[in-house]
Every structure is written in structure tokens, then in C-alpha cells.
Write a structure and sequence with these properties.
Residues 1-23 form the signal peptide. With 268 residues, this protein is mainly α. The chain has helices at residues 2-43, 49-62, 64-69, 88-92, 114-124, 141-144, 146-150, 161-178, 185-199, 216-262, and strands spanning 94-98, 101-104, 110-111. Helix content is 62%, strand content 4%.
Length: 268
């Protein structure tokens, strides 16, 4: 009887120990899953890096040259301000070493292409992103014509009047917020330019041109053409100056010879 009681007690203790071990194991797995889910949730960024990059390139090419020319400081309350671009800090930490080498400015790791560096930022440095509301530059793509720039070679889709009206309203609100008419002459000029450069093309008529004021590329092409023309004409200018000076020297020598021949010898 005592043996049976002892065996039952040992079996009971073994069962309790096994239950505790299983509970602890499953509990740890559940906790680990919760932590992993939390990380994955923190990793989610509801903002397109590609479209944000396209929007910034449009601003950099078709707006910022005019802003710099007016010596105008965009307010931080304006959604076009660099601080309101979620990915701006990461973009500034891209180091383009060579055509096939990009380097991370945070950890100095190298990659063969920019897209791999973007993936690295998403996987390793997403915790550095400021995911505050209003920081997604991609949300402004409708006003800035990102689709026109990104899909310029693809066939045009049918115009949607409701979408066009929405994008035009967003565009005009950006002009009012970023370049208030009551902020002086420079702000008024940039307000009018922004409407003409971006907002007027939001129409289904198809008669308005995108970015009619041009941008950085056009300025660079003109500067390059003038530079090449100057380099071509400069040697020709020096050649003309050289030939002119040589003719002048030869003329002086001929004049001296004529003068010497025309002189009379003194009688002895």
C-alpha cells in the first residue's frame, strides 16, 4: 500500500513538473511571437519611398531653382519643406561611391545598387524614421504630377475629372500655404509661379503643358552650350590677337627699314 502511494505521488509530481515545463515553453514562444509581431508592426511604414523620391526630384528640379533665385525661405509649416519628407534624412545618408557602389552613411555598408541600399534602410534603419503625421511626401504626388514623370513613356489613361479637381485643390492649397500672398514680393512671385508650373496642368482639356517654366535641366543645358561655345571661340580669339600683333611687329620693322634707306649720309 505504501509502495502504491509512493508511486502515485511520484507520478503526480512528474505530471505537475511536465505541465509546468510545457506551459513555460509555450509561454516563452508566445512572448517571442508577440515581440516579433511588435517589431513587424513597428517596421510598417505606410509611405511609398519610390513616390516620395519622385516627388522630391520634381521639387528639386522644377521648383527649388526658382526658390533659390528669389532667396526665399520656405516655412517648416509648408509640406514642401525638406523636414517634412519622411525619407529625407536617409536620402542624405546615401553615399554614391561609384556607378556600381552605394554606401550607407549610417553603418558604412556597401551595396551594388541604390535599390539594395533602400532595402537595407527599410530592414536595418527603419527605427530612425520620424513617422509623424504629414511627413509623407508621396501624399503630394497628385499635385506634383509624379505619375506623369514616372510613367512618361507609358500610354496615357483616360482623364478622371473628379481626381483632377481633387489634385488641383491640393495643388492650390500648397501654393497658399507655402507662398502666402501677404508675405511680400518674393512669396507673391513664387505663388504665381507654383500655380502656373504645377496647378494649371490639372485639367482634362490637355491644352496645358506640364512644368512650362522649365527647371534645373534646362538651365544646365543652356549653361553647357554656352560653355562649349566659349571654349570653341576662345582659341580663335587668341589666334586673331596673335596674328594682329605679328602684323603690327612686321609693319614696324618695314617702317624702320624705309626710314634708314631715306636718311642722307653726312659730308666728311
Amino acid at each position: 500500500m505504501e509502495k502504491t502511494t509512493a508511486a502515485t505521488l511520484v507520478l503526480l509530481l512528474f505530471t505537475i513538473f511536465l505541465q509546468q515545463a510545457l506551459f513555460q515553453a509555450f509561454g516563452e514562444d508566445a512572448a517571442e511571437r508577440m515581440v516579433q509581431q511588435g517589431k513587424e508592426h513597428a517596421h510598417e511604414v505606410h509611405c511609398s519611398r519610390e513616390r516620395s523620391k519622385a516627388a522630391w526630384k520634381i521639387l528639386e528640379e522644377y521648383l527649388m531653382p526658382f526658390v533659390e533665385r528669389e532667396n526665399y525661405q520656405i516655412s517648416s509649416k509648408c509640406r514642401l519643406h525638406p523636414d517634412n519628407d519622411l525619407f529625407r534624412d536617409q536620402e542624405q545618408h546615401k553615399i554614391h561611391v561609384d556607378i556600381n557602389e552605394w554606401k550607407c552613411g549610417y553603418c558604412k555598408k556597401s551595396f551594388r545598387a541604390e535599390r539594395y541600399l533602400d532595402q537595407h534602410f527599410d530592414n536595418r534603419h527603419y527605427n530612425l524614421l520620424n513617422v509623424s503625421e504629414g511627413k509623407c511626401l508621396a501624399d503630394l504626388c497628385g499635385a506634383l504630377h509624379c505619375d506623369f514623370v514616372m510613367n512618361s513613356k507609358s500610354p496615357r489613361t483616360k482623364c478622371n475629372p473628379a481626381a483632377v479637381a481633387k489634385n488641383r485643390h491640393l495643388c492650390e492649397s500648397l501654393a497658399d500655404r507655402c507662398f502666402p500672398l501677404n508675405q511680400g514680393r518674393s512669396a507673391s512671385h513664387l505663388h504665381e509661379l507654383f500655380l502656373h508650373q504645377f496647378c494649371d496642368a490639372h485639367t482634362c482639356s490637355g491644352k496645358k503643358k506640364h512644368f512650362p517654366k522649365g527647371g534645373k535641366k534646362q538651365t544646365s543645358v543652356i549653361y553647357l552650350a554656352v560653355s562649349i561655345l566659349t571654349l570653341m571661340l576662345l582659341p580663335l580669339f587668341y589666334l586673331i590677337v596673335y596674328l594682329y600683333q605679328r602684323e603690327m611687329r612686321q609693319g614696324k620693322q618695314e617702317l624702320r627699314r624705309i626710314t634708314r634707306v631715306g636718311q642722307k649720309t653726312k659730308p666728311s
